[in-house]
Design a protein that fits this description.
47% of the residues lie in helices and 15% in strands. By secondary structure, it is α/β, with parallel strands linked by helices. Helix 5 links the parallel strand 5 and strand 6.
Length: 244
């Protein structure tokens, strides 16, 4: 029987691209997102590929529902081999000018919602004896960038949490994969004035699925040139970081 993968935030951007890529490789899919009509559209698109597609409406900030939906998806597909924690938002919010609500939304979705999803996935993996947890962070997790403090901090927090999970599951049959995309062409970043080393969603998602199938522990996406660029970002002076 083909492998199963659950993707949160599957109706748009990277989530939709990942769903297409996994489907093209024959995976059975559990797809979640906030809007039923978006999921229905995606399911209709993927069904001609002949793969099983199960959809469930889920807002990852509805913390009580997260474990319920993840468990139901696992039951529907007779287990989950991979859970991709993808749902996220990117809301520009300058510090100290009354944008706390936007910042809180960013933390709620990108960190708290992501952790809630990870916790639910781990419970399923431990019950079935194995699984692969994939967290989508960002190159932005490396530094605090102008007008992106909450976004950068939420992704850095998720990165650190994933490292802790990797440490705790070291002797279990659970793989923890962190993927940190650079600029992949999606609605999430199209409003930005600069998107260096931009790649198409198709190329970016194919690269991500390749890395997931290799069970990579951590990788930038695409690995080149971001593995090199990341080293420069870590030491870039603030006056130059401010211009990014």
């Amino acid at each position: 029987m083909s492998k199963t993968v659950l993707i949160t935030g599957a109706s748009r951007g990277l989530g939709r691209g990942l769903a297409r890529e996994f489907a093209s490789r024959g995976y059975r899919l559990a797809l979640t997102a906030r809007k039923a009509e978006d999921l229905d559209s995606l399911k209709a698109e993927l069904q001609p590929l002949g793969v099983e597609v199960y959809t469930r409406v889920l807002d990852v900030v509805d913390y009580d529902q997260v474990p319920v939906v993840i468990a139901e998806c696992a039951e529907e597909l007779d287990g989950l081999d991979i859970v991709v924690v993808n749902a996220g938002v990117a809301i520009a919010a300058e510090a100290g000018v009354g944008k706390f609500e936007q910042m809180r939304t960013t933390f709620d979705v990108n960190l708290s919602g992501a952790v809630a999803t990870c916790e639910a996935a781990l419970a399923v993996f431990r019950e079935q004896g194995s699984g692969q947890l994939v967290g989508i962070t960002s190159i932005a997790a490396l530094r605090g960038m102008r007008r992106q403090g909450a976004y950068c901090a939420s992704k850095a927090g998720l990165s650190t949490y994933l490292e802790s999970v990797r440490c705790e599951t070291l002797n279990e049959a659970i793989t923890v994969t962190e993927l940190a995309p650079g600029y992949i062409d999606t609605d999430l970043n199209r409003a930005l004035s600069s998107r260096p080393f931009l790649v198409t969603a198709e190329r970016g998602c194919a690269c991500m699925v390749d890395l997931i199938e290799k069970k990579s522990r951590f990788s930038y996406v695409p690995p080149w040139p971001w593995a090199l660029v990341a080293q420069f970002l870590k030491i870039l002076p603030l006056r130059l970081l401010r211009k990014m």
